[in-house]
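Quick start: read one record
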Amino acid sequence: MVRNTIGTDPEFFIVDKNGNYVNAETMFPGTKEQPHIMKSGAGLQTDNVAVEFASPVGKTGEDFVEKLRATFNELFKMIPEDHVMDFAPSAVFPDAELQTEQAQLFGCSASYCAWALKENEQPCALNSNLRSTGAHIHIGRVKGDGNSFLHDPYGKVNTVRMCDSLHGIISVMFDQSDASIKRRELYGKAGEHRPTEYGVEYRSLSSFWLKSPNLVMMIDSLTQDALRLVREEQHDKLIERLGGPDEIQLIINTGDFKRAESAIDEVLLNTMSKDSRYFFEECRKVIDKYSFTKEWSIGQN
């Protein structure tokens, strides 16, 4: 079986008992330079005002889910009393929570657009107190997996374009809040990525897909689909069937639900693997009913 590795580095806001967004910077150990290594193997740190971890690498979808489950259970025990983790893709923070140097730091490393083939501009929101979170997908190749294009600049670009065509469009159906659209003033526009030594980091998604194991399995399976389409040189055909680069970017950058739904039902469902269709349909039924702690069995270990 052709198989890649998968990882993520999700960010989450912290909210106090009164529902106020608070700076997580002093609440958790670890920095970008020196992450705190958790028992699960994840690297914990704070980033701007959010808490973040770099997940252990998953070798299969099931392996990835179990590593995330262990990390979430460990992280929940570290959250201060009377505070909760929040999945909002963006939020406006009060001035009092933004007085540190880290809280003012954006875009420490350059990201790139797979469509325009150029470096993205430095993030700048209309409201300077707006902050965002994401859950990027780190896609890596393993020896003999047939995905050698992940070490080629254009292979990375084609992979990101397929992630937009699959993950990005599907995310519009599952992640359609105003806060998600607002997030794209800072991060998460179509095609956003970073080339890496092991493959590529796809940066367009918020953390919505970490709300349940089934959503994680869907994203993992869609990643296999994206790589298959590039491997079989079907990527340009899918872009054309979806209406071209401008249409794909429009759907993602504006959060156009109707266009996304049409693209999914008329094109993508016939492109996805059997596993991807299964997890998509399962998630589609219950997307508004997920309880994060129940789905991940938080506190039951």
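The longest strand covers residues 11-16.
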